[in-house]
Design a protein that fits this description.
By secondary structure, the protein is mainly alpha-helical. It has a domain at about 60-195: Tetracycline Repressor, domain 2, CATH 1.10.357. It has 9 helices and no strands.
Length: about 200
């Protein structure tokens, strides 16, 4: 039987950063302690505080791990076809939102916690802003593929709309079923592709 316990150094720091993300998603900012992260990671007590001496260091590691994961995930996504039909783009956008609300749910919840915390800790905002830039680029690609005129000028509004939709899917009492989610996104994209 192979030992799958993470080794010292970078691997252990990565595991702890991912455990911090899971802890944030499950217990919120108040529940994020070194001890809770050790428990989430299944590591001996003191492991987290050994690698991340302060709460600030742990928060920074969680933010950086979110950014790394986002970057890797975006690199794996197939490029959007251009030009694409509005239905194709709505399907791709719906798949993206469904992924963030499903497999990526912990990351979304942790990001909500960290974004709020960054209003009190500006040093977190720098890394969060870098991730936001990648999301803006993805939204510009979606608008361009959908045929939106001047897509960059419409990106902030699309992000605001998608953030609201994603919040409803992740934290709302009544998430939309897949067909309704796709139709909501198609309606949204239609409004963004209409000439001004």
């Amino acid at each position: 039987m192979t030992d799958t316990t993470p080794g010292p150094g970078a691997d252990r720091r990565r595991v702890l950063a991912e455990a911090a993300i899971g802890t944030l998603a499950r217990a919120g900012m108040r529940g994020l302690t070194h001890r809770a992260v050790d428990e989430t990671a299944g590591l001996p007590p003191g492991s987290c505080s050994y690698h991340f001496r302060t709460r600030q260091a742990l928060l920074q590691a969680a933010v950086e791990r979110l950014a790394e994961t986002d970057l890797a995930e975006m690199a794996e996504r197939p490029p959007l076809d251009r030009p694409a039909t509005l239905d194709d783009v709505a399907d791709q956008a719906a798949a993206l939102v469904a992924h963030w609300a499903g497999a990526g749910r912990d990351r979304v919840l942790a990001r909500y916690e960290l974004v709020l915390e960054s209003t009190r800790r500006p040093e977190l905002r720098t890394v969060l802003e870098a991730a936001a830039n990648r999301h803006r680029a993805l939204m510009a690609d979606i608008l361009t593929a959908a045929g939106a005129p001047v897509p960059a000028g419409r990106v902030p509004a699309l992000i605001a709309c998608l953030d609201g939709l994603l919040h409803g899917q992740v934290a709302g009492p009544d998430p939309l079923p897949a067909p309704e989610l796709r139709e909501a996104l198609r309606t949204l994209l239609t409004s963004f592709t209409a000439p001004r």
